[in-house]
Amino acid sequence: MKIKIEEENKQILNAYRGILRSMKTKRTQADTKLIRKAFDVAVDARESIYGVEASGNNEMGVADADVIVSGGRPLGSEDNFASLYELAHLLGGTVGASRAAVDEGYQPVARQVGLTGTVVAPRLYIACGIDGAIQHLAGMRGSQVIVAINTNPDAPIFKIATYGCVMDLFELVPALTAQLQASPQPA
Ligand SMILES: Cc1cc2nc3c(=O)[nH]c(=O)nc-3n(C[C@H](O)[C@H](O)[C@H](O)COP(=O)(O)OP(=O)(O)OC[C@H]3O[C@@H](n4cnc5c(N)ncnc54)[C@H](O)[C@@H]3O)c2cc1C
């Protein structure tokens, strides 16, 4: 994965070099600064597209996962995301997050799903305490099965959910986890 990123970086850099070469006018210091900035932005975007963790740990990226358990602002802390990781691992998947949860610092930006995060299309997407803002939906509406857990029956996420649970995530997530732990592992 790291090699892939480096290759992508090289491709982006080469593209910018190409732009520079094709510029008829003499390159100014401001041009160089602008291109450097554009390069940095593109690299950041690539990191988010490929779901690479800034911390470099071995957790699967959201782009690679068949199952994503995603958390929103109501999770309230990084520690509370541990219950989502537990559920996700039992299902063979990983954790995603809304931008609100990322902005609050509960999860790294590589886990953000949506328009300005990663666009995902897993077999199963479980949205826990995610309202369903259009920018979030843009990143996950291609999921095969969407389960939404939300206390508000009018939350927009229910409009695209395959299964909707009007429930407190802090009750349902541990209950699901306990049930999975009690059931035999698939062969
Ligand atoms: C240019 C732009 C780009 C953006 N890009 C993205 C993006 O890529 N990804 C993204 O996600 N957002 C993006 N956003 C932000 C987006 O508009 C929303 O603000 C954000 O998705 C809201 O996150 P949230 O659903 O976690 O939080 P909230 O809007 O706070 O919603 C929380 C939801 O949880 C429910 N809830 C509360 N407590 C519980 C509980 N105990 N159990 C269950 N449910 C509960 C509430 O009813 C509510 O529906 C972008 C916005 C802009 C302007």
Keywords:
binds flavin-adenine dinucleotide; Rossmann fold; 7 helices; single chain; 187 residues; alpha/beta; globular
Which helices and strands occur, and which strands form pairs?
Layout: H1 2-22, H2 29-49, E1 67-71, H3 82-90, E2 94-97, H4 99-103, E3 124-128, H5 134-140, E4 145-149, H6 157-160, E5 163-165, H7 169-182
Parallel strand pairs: 1-2, 1-3, 3-4, 4-5
Helix pairs in contact: 1-2, 3-7
Bound molecules: flavin-adenine dinucleotide (FAD).
Description:
The protein has 187 residues and is an alpha/beta fold. The protein has a single domain (7-187), classed as 3-Layer(aba) Sandwich (Rossmann fold). The protein has seven helices and five strands, in the order ααβαβαβαβαβα. The chain has helices spanning 2-22, 29-49, 82-90, 99-103, 134-140, 157-160, 169-182; strands spanning 67-71, 94-97, 124-128, 145-149, 163-165. Strands 2-1-3-4-5 form a five-stranded parallel β-sheet. α1 (2-22) runs antiparallel to α2 (29-49). It starts with a helix and ends in a 5-residue tail after the last helix. Flavin-adenine dinucleotide binds next to α4, α5 and α7.
